[in-house]
Amino acid sequence: MRRLWSWGALILGALYFLLPLIGTIEFSLRMRRGEYSLDAYRSVLADPNFRATFGYSVAMALLTILLGVLIVVPTAYWVRLRLPRLRPVIEFVTLLPLVIPAIVVVFGYIRLYNTSSLLPLTGSATGTNLLLLCGYATLALPYMYRAVDTGLSTLDVRTLTEAAQSLGAGWVRIIGSLIMPNVLGAVMSGAFLSFAIVIGEFTMAALLNRPAFGPYMQLLGANRAYEPAALAVIAFGATWACMGLLQLISRLAGVRKTAK
After folding, report:
1. pTM of the model as a whole
2. Which of 2, 143, 176, 226 satisfies CB 3.0 to 4.6 Å to 193 for a cystine?
3. Alpha-carbon distance 8 to 200, whole Å?
4. TM spans, by residue (predicted)?
């Protein structure tokens, strides 16, 4: 009986996720009247704005992952090693992006870094990209920190650190050569979530007027019928392909590390 309930829950979950996807795919193929075709996909792929905005968002997602790793891994490691009493405070701080809307964060950026401020980052494309990158890293912080902290909880951080220090390793080498390989799976979990967040994010990119994929999807959805469905399917497949590529790279890096 328990197995029956388990299969029932699994089937319901699969239907919940798959039915909308199947419906979207079916609708995207109906652009040509009376028959299925790939016209909507051809229209989307021929649009240079699609390639530009998707490439921009992929680049920002990779930079967001890199920035998140550089901030979160040393912080979570140091908290577990030296500041265990501050863990509840750090966890509370990392959860704040979940309760503070993105629109509040981006308006704060605009007020603090507008062209009349001491640091006019919004006055140039590079500065605005930097602000958007910081915003993305903020949105992804809860997921990246939770993933890395969970990975660190499986390690005896203090013993590993003392053993490495007894062999003469410095802090950078301890984090880069000892801690990082051991939490690589957790880091990749956080990276997947960060990637998915950045690819679909709309509010920050639109208010900072950056050519990201989220505003492009909204603009296309407001003016076309079948192309938005095709774009959603393409974005779904491309996002999973990019995440699979990240997973493959991490596995290859792990295999190479083990071989050494």
Report:
1. 0.83
2. 143
3. 31
4. 54-77, 89-110, 130-148, 183-208, 228-250
SS3 of 112-167: the string is: HCCCCCCCCHHHCHHHHHHHHHHHHHHHHHHHHHHHHHHHHHCCCHHHHHHHHHHC
In single-letter form, the type of residue at position 77 comes to: Y
Q: Whole-angstrom Cα distance, residue 92 to residue 72?
A: 14
| Alpha carbons 135 and 258: distance in angstroms, whole number | 36
Model confidence at 118: pLDDT above 80:
yes
Question: Using CA atoms, how far apart are residues 78 and 129, in angstroms rounded to an integer?
Answer: 29
Average pLDDT over residues 211-237: 85
Give start and end residues of each alpha helix (H) in the chain. 2-28, 39-45, 48-82, 87-99, 102-112, 125-153, 157-166, 171-173, 180-182, 184-200, 203-207, 213-223, 227-259
**Is the CB of residue 113 less than 8 Å from the CB of residue 119?**
yes
- CB 129 within 8 Å of CB 54: no
Residue 87: name the closest of 97, 99, 79, 75 by CA.
79
> Is the pLDDT assigned to residue 253 strictly greater than 70?
no
40 Cβ neighbours under 8 A, 6+ residues apart: 28, 29, 31, 226, 227, 229, 230
Cβ(228)–Cβ(217) below 8 Å: yes
For the chain, the residue count is 260
pLDDT in tens, 18-30: 898 899 899 989 8
